[in-house]
């Protein structure tokens, strides 16, 4: 080698050393191991990554060190990328298929489907994209949008200027009124553009999907052209290279150059489901890179096991912001076995109520113990307090929980901190053990940060991330090296052997500190030492899968646990004895003679703590043994104490412990001690239930724990901190933690992350539970350099209420009495009670239980997963923030019993409004009808059967909380006077009573119906943080839940006789009443005839003729004829044009004129224009019949009355007049709709080519309805101006004539405000558009497009899209049509 080449090599070595900390390997001996055994670099191992998904195009994730594909399978286990492709279509003669959205999709002529069947579906791109990518694209698309918007505004403003010049230059050419209308329209367009821009919402592009079988395999293609400008010709369906399941051919694609988002495809259920696999975030790719990235060009940045292969199991649901779901986790476990993985890494986790329990934990145990898969997971990022390990990593026996360690090299190269760490340490936020049942929690630790690959859509190759999410894949990569070596050497690589080797060879860190094991676990993973241990112990590890399971039970208790954990004050006050059971566990198929009978171990039991006594030896056989343990905590000083009982092979102690029993004892500071006394930590106890911890000193990463016995009766605590002299602001993590049975630590923990400057003071308060041990943890953040000091004081307060937990107020009963006690000191009390949430209970309207049966939903051993689909109907009389909850299931994640509890919320058009799961979130809803669908899953169908009637509680947040009055006496509560409004003192030991409620009925929300519950809170005490004014401070954090049971409503006042009274009315004779009853019965029968058969049609025709001859002016009969004519016309029009059916009177009339019904004379095939016209003429004739039967003069006089009529018969006259008006308006609306369609049809057949968009047109004459058509508009058909009725449709009417539609419309407006009444605004808008007032037409539909109590109708939205098209605003038209596609799905989406 030349001197220059040697210099370059040296330089590269220096650079590798400088930046080696970016991907830590040396700390866990991986670097040394690979140097000595380069062929054991993970080859032959397959690692499943349970995470957000892995980008198949990411740097370093293409091939292994021996040239094999790096990622062998990519699966979306959550279903968030599923597309319903069950709709089967055929190609037309042009080689096109109709997509699920009604658009034409051209197929590639080279694609072959022997059956001729093509399955279609669609997916919104934003439903696939991760949140970070979606935000970036929205910003970029907004810029492109702004360009189009500026151009449209410029054109609109130019039209205003042009119109003004035209008016100024030639005022005599057009009437002044016409010029005014033109001006109003062009100005309205400018204003409309501005208003539209304020409401801009980027719904994102749609992706069309086509699936087919080519005779050998299922294939799929995507059309992503909607991601580009319309007409660009980019990314059309025919240009897509068909893809099949990723595992089969390892294909992946990119949606577009702009997003750079890669995806894979999988096809399920015989083509009915297409899964588009997109990562839900960059986290999963980063994790996979730490484990197994291979960078041949820069080996220093390669992952721990570059020879390993990866299976991407996406468990983070994109619909939930990448939250894991039990569906995703269960399918991921199935995928592990399908791909024969040896390892699982799961960098996910949650706090749990019950450790080592739940559906997922049980399945994971089967995966590990039955199928020999090594499962590694993050311990959690909730430290530095004790017992903050998360599930499943830190709380499950079958899973190795990994803590996060930061070395000086990682801090320097990875985090680029400004100084140097003196030594390696645990990240401050890394979760600590033990678990609530005494298990150690953290198995081992590994470096918890790295600069590793991220998805291409992030626009960078690599990124720094830190967390136990990073330490877990680091450890997993180390275990992949071990398994690679064991497989290559023919050794057994069982989970039991791997765990024992890792734990017994880990490098201890911070030995001698009481919390070392709880922080680091057994220490820092050491790959090379574990490998040497495995080779040495190979002959002794027989059977290879043998593990020793330990449980311990306190002798005066029945509960078995995995360790001893004495935490509460009472636990450490007496000597205790425990029964310990040790059970050897083998594979369930282990042979009795060769395996089970051979299990016999001579164990030496050891414990270094003088306060623990155990037997010296234990001869252990297959059926297990037990022994007694004695523990005397009374001799221990205040603080944390940890030890273990370790069992060694007496014949080979070098193997290390074969099992360990962790023992954690906490002796809290007792505040009942004499005032002024000091605890072992130097804290000074005060007489007022407070403690002064003095000055606490810190270095980076230092933690100070103080354990205090919370006095009985305490309900909240107040913490005061003061910083010392600081050179720079210093960051601290502050925690106050207590544990309660079957309760998450996060539910009882107060936490804060603060930065202090010199001498800065900080005060806070938090809720506490009496007779528990409170751990106060103060930690200087590891990266906050320099020494520091804090002084700390903690004071307990107590205002106890009886009942202590939840308080129920019965709205139908007396005021609820609450007894209050100041238990610790003099307190200031001011009761404040409020109700802020309404609980709406629901039962399922439908319940469907069925087996899933597909391979991805079938567990090992052929166990089929069943799905229970529950449908709830929700009716809201008031809108607001609404949260659907399943109280039986919510917040139970890994300790939950079911595999799924997802819900989807829909409006009446099946448009999805929200998706929720374990942690349901509030969604803003309008009043109206909604549907909530819930999916539950389990392989036990009998269990699901029991849940078919499971109630749901919908929580509606009240816009304004209901204040519950609080009184000092029952008498005041009865009178409703002298409610408590001021604070009052309570001396220590003093009691007081308060009376809550009742709440006045007029203060309750309208939907608080009898029997429903209103929920809120009651606060009593005031904090001492008064700001120096002598008064009490804010309400204390110790609030009680308050529940109010709504009482029956008061009866309505009796009528005074003027309403509904028949006094004064002429009594009808029996003959008249009989005749009317027969008439009404005949009309009712007429309405019930469906005319489905020839016999019914004949009977209907004859009966209608008879009734009309006998009762020509009977309104119900005439309305029935009108409605039947409309129905016939609508049916024919819908059949011919495939239109959506109208949803209201005006819409029905307008839409019904598209074509005539077959029964009106049309052929059974395509309806001709003549038959459509006949059908519309029938509607007009029927409407005229109703109009003619009503004497409008008396009706107008009655409607004009300013004061309601009173006296005998007033109620009947009011009812009759209201019925006449309703019939008249319905008839006029129907007539207008039919005439409008007739007019449009006539115009379409005779109209000349439309004028240019900026060319003026002739306005109609008349009232405010006349306007200058500024945009293209058809010339109206007309009739003479004095015609009051008729059906004239002459398109070539004389100038100045008024159309028949206009005449009818003006009459309609005499009776109803068509511009304001939601039923008629569409008709009004069509009239505005007919006159060329397109902006006015669009604007008048604002309320109809977003009604308060129901979803918008498709007809309204389609009409608006047409207006935008006529206005030439293609960008707005495209957005409107995108909204239509979203608002009216063909079916409910897949779970």
What does this structure look like?
It is an enzyme of class 3 (hydrolase). With 1391 residues, this protein is of the alpha+beta class. It folds into 8 domains: 27-78 and 280-545, Peptidase S8/S53 domain (Rossmann fold, 3-Layer(aba) Sandwich), CATH 3.40.50.200; 88-124 and 203-275, no CATH class; 133-198; 549-666, Immunoglobulin-like (Sandwich), CATH 2.60.40; 684-797, GOLD domain (Jelly Rolls); 803-838 and 959-1045, Immunoglobulin-like (Sandwich); 844-940, no CATH class; 1114-1383, no CATH class. It is built from 30 helices and 60 strands. Strands 1, 2, 13, 16, 17, 18, 19 and 20 form an 8-stranded mixed beta sheet that branches. The longest helix has 39 residues, at 131-169. The protein starts with a helix and ends in an 8-residue tail after the last helix. The model is unreliable at 1057-1063, 1135-1166 and 1248-1296 (pLDDT under 50).
What is the topology?
Blueprint: H1 3-19, H2 30-36, E1 46-51, E2 71-76, E3 82-84, E4 87-89, E5 96-98, E6 104-106, E7 118-124, H3 131-169, H4 176-198, E8 206-213, E9 218-223, H5 246-249, E10 253-254, E11 262-268, E12 273-277, H6 283-292, E13 309-314, E14 316-317, E15 323-324, H7 326-338, E16 343-346, H8 359-371, E17 374-378, E18 400-406, H9 408-414, E19 425-426, E20 444-447, E21 449-453, E22 462-466, H10 468-488, H11 495-505, H12 516-520, H13 527-537, E23 547-554, E24 560-561, E25 564-566, E26 576-585, H14 592-596, E27 600-606, E28 612-613, E29 617-621, E30 625-631, E31 639-649, E32 657-667, E33 684-685, E34 690-698, E35 703-709, E36 716-723, E37 730-737, H15 745-748, E38 750-756, E39 761-767, E40 773-780, E41 788-797, E42 799-802, E43 807-810, E44 816-822, E45 827-842, E46 846-851, E47 858-859, E48 863-864, E49 866-876, E50 880-885, E51 900-906, E52 912-916, E53 923-925, E54 928-938, H16 941-946, E55 952-964, E56 966-967, H17 970-975, E57 984-986, E58 991-996, E59 1013-1021, E60 1040-1045, H18 1070-1088, H19 1094-1110, H20 1115-1137, ...
Parallel strand pairs: 1-13, 1-16, 2-13, 16-17, 17-18, 18-20, 25-32, 43-60
Antiparallel strand pairs: 3-12, 4-7, 5-6, 7-8, 8-9, 10-11, 11-12, 14-15, 18-19, 21-22, 23-24, 23-26, 26-30, 27-29, 27-31, 28-30, 31-32, 33-34, 34-41, 35-40, 36-39, 36-41, 37-38, 37-40, 42-44, 44-58, 45-55, 45-57, 45-59, 46-49, 47-48, 49-54, 50-53, 50-55, 51-52, 51-54, 56-58, 59-60
Helix pairs in contact: 3-4, 4-27, 6-10, 7-8, 10-13, 11-13, 18-19, 20-21, 20-22, 20-24, 21-24, 22-24, 24-25, 26-27, 27-29, 29-30
InterPro entries: Peptidase_S8/S53_dom, Peptidase_S8/S53_dom_sf, Peptidase_S8_Ser-AS, Peptidase_S8_subtilisin-like, Peptidase_S8_subtilisin-rel, TPP_II_domain, TPPII_C_sf, TPPII_GBD
Biased composition (Low complexity): 1278-1292
Domain Peptidase S8/S53: 42-520
